[in-house]
Design a protein that fits this description.
- Two copies of one chain form a homodimer.
- By secondary structure, chain A is mostly beta strands.
- Chain A has one domain: Phosphoribosyl-AMP cyclohydrolase (Ubiquitin-like (UB roll), Roll), CATH 3.10.20.
- In chain A, β1 and β2 form a beta hairpin.
- The longest helix of chain A is centred in the middle third of the chain and has 10 residues.
- The termini of chain A are far apart.
- β7 of chain A pairs antiparallel with β5 of chain B, so a sheet runs across the interface.
- Chains A, B: One of its GO terms (molecular function) is phosphoribosyl-AMP cyclohydrolase activity.
- Chains A, B: Keywords: Amino-acid biosynthesis, Cytoplasm, Histidine biosynthesis, Hydrolase, Magnesium, Metal-binding, Zinc.
- Chains A, B: This is Phosphoribosyl-AMP cyclohydrolase.
């Protein structure tokens, strides 16, 4: 049959509670430091690619395509563990953040983590240093 | 004027990139262990209450009301730090998970963390122990 020519998708993808857009949020947490680096979105293909490659692949909502993290910057994320929460609607990756002389730069602003705005009661202060010039990341 | 009788909302709430439903995902990360405990949702009121109380308050999408985490179970989360990511659409809380003899049970299943399903290539295996009988949590 024609159906047999379709690539088989593993049944564990069906266990995920994809939202009405077919997406779930995915957290990247750094192995070792256990810092939360970033949150992005995944669809079925992104999660399958992440597992197959052993590197984080997200779904870019703005570009509406798969986004192999680090494809431009070299800041790929090697995936060591993949978790799903009790409601099965959030993914947690344990990753090793590669790139730029071991600085572990996950954020497009050149910072280690994307969570660099800290609430101090008056506003959100940027409290993490810029480790790499962003213009050097996307050249 | 009548406008002056409205409760003033701090301007830092406007800096958050609320989605089309007026929500953002919020990650609760345990201080010390740095374990990611859970992800829930916040609207403006939930984030404001979280800051005002110093305890995590989420927006329950299923019950469509504010959800003061631990209000039934006693498993409140004392909030030590509030972060916002580069895109300003995800909140990260650093919390101390209270309740049940210091077990730090965040999950309604009686586990430490909600992220207890681990992908092993065949499926999602439950790899974290149940520390507290769920029936003891919501009695």
């Amino acid at each position: 049959t024609h159906a047999s020519r379709l690539p088989a998708q593993p049944t564990w993808l069906d266990a995920v509670a994809w939202d009405e857009r077919g997406l779930v949020p995915a957290i990247a947490q750094e192995a070792g430091s256990k810092d939360v680096l970033m949150v992005a979105w995944m669809n079925r293909e992104a999660l399958l690619e992440t597992w197959a490659r052993g590197q984080a692949v997200y779904w870019s909502r703005s570009r509406q395509r798969l986004w192999h993290k680090g494809e431009e910057s070299g800041h790929v994320q090697t995936v060591l563990d993949v978790r799903l929460d009790c409601d099965r609607d959030v993914v947690l990756l344990t990753v090793r953040q590669e790139g730029h002389e071991g600085h572990g730069v996950a954020c497009h602003t050149g910072r280690h983590s994307c969570f660099f705005h800290q609430l101090d009661g008056e506003g959100w202060a940027a409290v993490e240093p810029v480790l790499v010039d962003p213009e050097r990341i996307y050249r």
